[in-house]
Each structure stands twice: as C-alpha cells, then as structure tokens.
Specification:
two-stranded antiparallel sheet; proton channel activity; hydrogen ion transport; mainly alpha; 560 residues; Otopetrin-3; 2 domains
Length: 560
C-alpha cells in the first residue's frame, strides 16, 4: 500500500511540475511557449483521465468484490451538490468561450474552440464519476486506481493553475475599455500593428457582449470546481484498499434538526437580508458604470460590522468547547483529516490577499477614509478566519452528544393522546349511525340536514386534530429547547449563526461582487497582471473556504 501511494504520488508530482513549467514558460516567454501549447498538453491529460474514468466505471467498479466497503463520511451531499453546481457553471463558461472564439474566428486559433469542447466532456464525465463513486473503498486494482486518481488530481490542479494565471480575455476587455476612455478624453488610442488585443476586438453586437460579460461573470466558478474535485479525488485516493470495521460504524448517527436554536437563526437571517441588500446595491452600481466611492464605503462597512461579531462568536464557542466534558474522537478518519487540511489551506487565500492589501495601503495613504476601511477589513478578516478555524477544528474532533431519552416521552404522549381520541370518534360515528336508523326514511330534507351536520362535524374534528398537532409540535420544540444545557444551547446558536454568515459571505464574492479588484488601489500598486494573479489565486480559495466552513459548522451543530 505504501509503495503504491508513493508511486502514484510521484506520478502526480511529475505531471504537475511538467504542466507548471509549461504555464510558467507561457507567462514569461510568449514566443517559445504559447497558450495553445499549454491547451494541447492539458487536452492530452484530459483524454488520458477520461479513458481511466470510463475504464473505472465500466470495468474496475463492476468486478466481483470491488466495492465491498463504502466510507459514510466521504462525499457528503453538499460536496457532491457543489460538484454539480460548479460543474454546471464551468460548462457554461466553456460555452461562452466557444461562442466568443467563434465570433472572433478570424483572429483566434482553432484550438480555442477544441479545448473548451474537450473540457465540457471532461467536466460531465468527472462530475458523474464523483457523484456515483465518491464513497468507494475499492478493493481491486489498487495501484492502477491510485495512479488514475492522482493523474486526475494533477490535471485538475493544472487547470486551476491555468485559470489563475490566464487573463487573455480579461486583458482584451481591459484594453477595449481603455480605448473607449481615451476616445472620450480626445486622445488617439495607441495601437501597435502586431498587437493581438487590438485585432481581436469584440464587435458591437449584443451576442458578443453577452459572451464576453458571461465569461467574466462565471469565471471564478471554474477554479472553484477544480478545487472541489481535487478534494473529493484525494479522499477516494486515501480510501483505495481501505477496510472499514463494522464495529467502528456508529449505530446512531446524529441528524440535522432545527431544534434548540432561536437567536442564531434570527441574527443570521437579519445578516443575510442586509447582506443581500448591500450586494444588490453594489451590483447595480458595478454593472451600470464604475462603482463610486460611497458604494465601496457601504460594502466594507458591512464587513467591518459583521466580522467582529463572527469572531466573538467563534471565540465564545471555543471557550465552551474547552469547558465541555465530551471526549475527543481519536479514531482514524481520512475525511475529517482532509477537512482540517482544506480549512487551513483554503484560509491561506483570504489571509494572503489581506496581507497584500495591508502592505499596499500602508505604503500609499492609510489615513484616507476608504483606505482605512480596507485596512480594517483586512485585519479583521485575518482574525475572523483564524478564530473560526480553531472553533470548527475543535468541534470536529469532539464526540457527538447522544441523548437517549430526550425524544421518547413526547412521542409516547402523542401516541396516547391520539389513541384516546380515536374511541371518542368511533362513539360519535356509531351514535350518528344509530340516529340515522331512527329517522323515518321518507323525509329527504331531514336526511340532507343530517348529512350536512356530519360533514360539519368531520371538518370540526379535522381542525381540532390540526390544532392539536401544531400544539404538540410547539410544545416538543420548547421542551427540547428548555432541556438543553446552556453549553449545548450556546454551541448550537453560535454554529447556526456562523452558518448563515458564511453563506452570505460565500454568495457575495461568488456572484460578482469583487471590490478587492475593482477599487483600483491594489491594482495600481502591484500592476494589473500581478494583482490579477493574486486575486485569482486568493478569491477562489476564499469562496471555497466559506463553502467548506458551512459544512464544518453544520457538523459542529449536529454533534452539539
């Protein structure tokens, strides 16, 4: 097993180094290695990965005793759902790129249409593979499966690295905007006869603008998709040949129930509503024209108010964990180990961007209002990320709290109440039948009145039953809330509040709000290409961190 892991790891390392050398050569020497050469290399890797995935689906997984064990912790529904979601946006991104390149076919290479087409096939096949087999602990063809998984991981890493550094279409849009500004100022735009960006101008047609804007809008989803796929594939690689003992599988798995929380959902919902309003106001300004100063001040002020609240909640939750008497979960769990690694690794994106912003602000003008807000935002973001990581990691390593008798009595009481109601209903129905037998059959009007009375009685009984069900549900909710200890109650409130906060902090940068790139401060300090690479490295990691934090916080909430 160790030899197979070592060999497959060396294979992935060599593939990543080869691809990184190609991409670095493309960045620093545009003549010797072009973007088309990098696309050809990645297309070859994608074809090899497709061949292995198809072989696994049709051959390896169908062999006898191939999948005897399945890891219940691997591939949760929110991870597989995010693979499908980000995969769908990545397919849309490639469709936009194909349409954009087809319109500008006179100055674009044929590879720019072939490469996205292969990418669409690769995304569809990989998403189906991860949806169906992310929990597999394969017991046959160990070395070949490990090498295939590592090759796919290396390919996704190279696709992510290319997405971080490839700013071709972004530079074309930037150069066109610069030309428009120069024309308004009365200056003649500079154009070199060999300048490719001036030759590949998007014509003034609606369809070209849609492809251009759509490509830029869904661009971060592609990097997000590559990162999520790498995490799922790594868990599958760790589970190759793994045998799970049945006595280690918990018989009672905690389930998500919205009980024992009141203030967390209220504060979290208010945070989400205010965040959506701020996000919509920012997007209206950003899409209409260049965002003005007031919009940036409003956006960063929202973060400056929210981040300290999240940090205080995480610190209080960590202190409560220290006061608890729950034992630590010391069993080997590859999924939990990967969760910790991903939380720490993805946090580097936000922390790195924050430090770059701090250096740029301190070196320019930290006394300006907007700059001071950005500086406060960067410092608070670093502190919030660290405190939240400590809270989540500490909660993931705690044994789940199992309440054996908490939910028994309300159910028995409800059954006794329903059972006591049924004989009364039978008595009313039998008495009504006896009354019907005493009525003279020739009187049709009295029969109609009797039928109307029975229908009214039935409606009244159903309304009474509905009221009793609502009353029992509310009483059971209050009973569960009052019987929770203050530590468990506080942990659930904090976890639920942080879940909603991370959701809104995931939504805002994912769907277009990128003030860190549009405020112009860091971009003018570091240069367009350098800051583009920094943002494309840190922003997808930050979005991935928020999404992964939601899963970790839900796990902490369920086990509290």
């Amino acid at each position: 097993q160790k030899a197979g892991q070592l060999f497959s790891g060396l294979l992935a390392m060599n593939v990543v180094f080869l691809g990184s050398a190609f991409i670095s050569s493309m960045i620093f020497n545009h003549v010797a290695i072009t973007l088309a050469d990098v696309w050809i290399l990645l297309s070859i890797l994608k074809v090899l990965c497709l061949c292995w995935i198809i072989y696994y689906l049709l051959g390896t997984s169908r062999q006898p005793h191939a999948v005897v064990y399945r890891d219940s912790h691997a591939g949760p529904i929110w991870i597989r759902g995010s693979v499908l979601l980000f995969g769908s946006f990545s397919i849309l991104l490639n469709a936009f790129q194909i349409g954009y390149s087809a319109i500008l076919i006179q100055c674009k290479s044929r590879v720019e249409i072939v490469f996205p087409s292969i990418d669409i096939l690769f995304i569809c096949t990989q998403a189906f593979f991860l949806w169906r087999h992310s929990k597999d602990c394969i017991q046959v063809q160990h070395n070949f499966t490990r090498c295939g998984l590592m090759l796919t991981i290396a390919t996704n890493l190279l696709l992510w690295l290319l997405a971080v550094t490839n700013d071709t279409i972004h530079l074309e849009v930037e150069s066109q905007l610069r030309e428009v500004e120069q024309r308004f100022e009365g200056k003649a735009p500079f154009s070199h006869p060999c300048n490719e960006t001036t030759l590949c101008r998007c014509p003034n047609t609606t369809i070209c603008k849609v492809f251009q804007k759509g490509y830029i809008l869904v661009y971060p989803f592609n990097t997000e998709y590559c990162l999520v796929c790498c995490s799922v594939l790594y868990v599958m690689w760790k589970n190759v040949g793994r045998r799970i003992s049945h006595h280690l599988v918990p018989h009672v798995k905690p389930k998500f129930k919205l009980q024992g929380v009141v203030f967390g959902p209220l504060l979290g919902t208010a945070t989400v509503v205010i965040g959506i309003c701020v996000f919509m106001m920012y997007q209206i300004q950003a899409t209409g024209s260049a965002p003005n100063r007031q919009v940036f001040i409003m956006y960063y002020s929202y973060y400056i108010v929210l981040l300290p609240l999240m940090s205080v909640g995480a610190v209080i939750g960590t202190i409560i964990h220290a006061l608890e008497k729950r034992e630590l979960d010391t069993l080997k769990n590859p999924t939990r180990s990967l969760d910790v690694i991903l939380l720490m690794g993805a946090a580097l994106g936000q922390i790195g961007m924050s430090y770059f912003s701090i250096v740029a602000i301190v070196a320019t003008d930290p006394r300006d209002l907007l700059n001071s807000l950005i500086l406060s935002y960067s410092v608070l973001l670093i502190f919030q990320t660290i405190t939240q990581n400590v809270f989540i990691i500490d909660g993931l390593h705690r044994q789940p709290f199992v309440a054996a008798t908490e939910a028994r009595h309300p159910g028995h009481a409800g059954q006794r109440a329903v059972a006591s109601e049924l004989p009364g209903e039978e008595e009313t129905t039998t008495s009504s039948k006896q009354e019907q037998t005493q009525i003279f059959p020739s009187k049709e009007e009295e029969m109609k009145e009797e039928q109307n009375r029975e229908a009214y009685d039935q409606r009244r009984v159903s309304m009474l039953e509905l009221g009793q069900e609502i009353r029992k549900a509310s009483l059971s909710y209050l009973h569960s809330y009052s019987h929770l200890s203050w530590k468990r109650r506080a942990l659930r409130e904090i976890s639920f509040f942080l879940v909603l906060c991370n959701i809104i902090l995931w939504v805002m940068p994912t769907f277009g709000a990128h003030p860190v790139f549009e405020n112009g401060l860091e971009k003018s300090f570091y240069g367009y290409s350098t800051w583009f690479a920094i943002v494309n490295f840190g922003l997808p990691l930050g979005v991935f961190y928020r999404m992964h934090s939601v899963g970790g916080l839900l796990e902490v909430y369920v086990t509290a």
